[in-house]
Amino acid sequence: MPQPLNLLKETPSQTAGPYVHIGLTPNFCDITGVYPEDLGTVMVGEATKGERITVTGRIFDGTGTPLRDGLIEIWQADASGRYPGPTDPRGGADPHFTGWGRCPADGETGVYRFETIKPGRVPWPDGRMQAPHISFWIVARGINLGLNTRLYFPEESAANAEDPLLKRLEHQARVPTLVGKREGQTITFDIHLQGPQETIFFDI
Amino acid sequence: MTEFGINTPPETGAFLPRDRNWHPPAFTPTYKTSVVRAPQKALISFDNSLSEVTGPRFGHNLIGPNDNDLIINFARPGEMAIGQRIIVHGRVLDERGRPVPGVLVEYWQANAGGRYRHKKEGYQAALDPNFGGCGRSITAEDGSYWFRTVKPGAYPWPNGVNDWRPAHIHFSVFGSGFAQRLITQMYFEGDPMLKLCPIVNTIADPAAIEALVAPLDMSNTVPMDARAYKFDIILRGRRSTPFENRREGN
Predict the structure, then answer these.
(1) B145 is catalytic
(2) Is B170 a catalytic residue?
(3) Which fold has domain B18-35+55-245?
(4) What is the pTM of this model?
């Protein structure tokens, strides 16, 4: 036998379940007094640089029914394309921007909503620039392992056309599932878990 | 932020790919809700960019003094939650066995009778007025975390006619990159409900199921106070090639 590689196995995922709010957004489900506020509710402040946008939408299951118990987290670069925190080796991100948000779907309508800024462009590993995008992570009852997708911007058609990830997708007809619809400062991004309009999900 | 030794490259490399035969697949029909919530098309794979290797960071100042004590963090002054008092502790490591310090671990659970404090919950078991069910920690330098709680009860759910969840605690864990984001459930050693649970059985490999079962840990019991269970969490490791971290223009 050769030497073992000594790698551990990642802890397997399980569904977040219908009561994910108890742990991740307790104030949202009326468990008050434990945390001052739910984490990830506020991403920007007055001093944050960049264009204010609202990102909103719903998650639909394979029957076209909106999920009313889903939860979304987003992660994005600042207006100049830098990520907050120590793991962007370039540093220099806007100190007034968290880059990260968390929002449960509304318990009646299924609508989620983030108040954020439009991200700048971030390099691909080979140095080409990606189009502006926001990374999404979706968990819910019935989802065994969190789903990863990305939101791109409709007004960035030139950047989207040269985006190294979008360009390499075989089924170009599916690319529009990753592009939001824009009205003013509001970008609507509906996510379809299954079916003919199925959103592209990534194995990252 | 972790300090890096002189010969230790900063951990900014791409993550090792997920083993999706080890994780549960999306479509697991005996867990009924997964049927219409599972994508039918293949996931698109690509090597990590900065968007995946970076992730949010939370400071220790986020954590309040009672955030890791579910016995008192929702209780009225001077009162405590009812149930079997336990300490849950463990370490967050990566696949290379290295501690993952300074990351947020969140946990939530039902009370001792299996009742969740949630408006959409209809189980007749009583709420405990002194139990909320949520807590959080930030891992120490050695990747360790711990919290005090009551052991949750088993819980019936509308899947099959007579399906019951084993006693479990939900966990949400951040690493240093968004691609490490993980939600899972911890189960308790020796629970006979484990074999019967459609959610546990979304995982095909028995060894992967065992990785979610916390052993009783009498070495960390507090005598005359609380028993202990150990639950280590393994996050994705990063590729270690030093050249990865020296890209031109980065």
Answers:
(1) no
(2) yes
(3) Protocatechuate 3,4-Dioxygenase, subunit A (2.60.130)
(4) 0.96
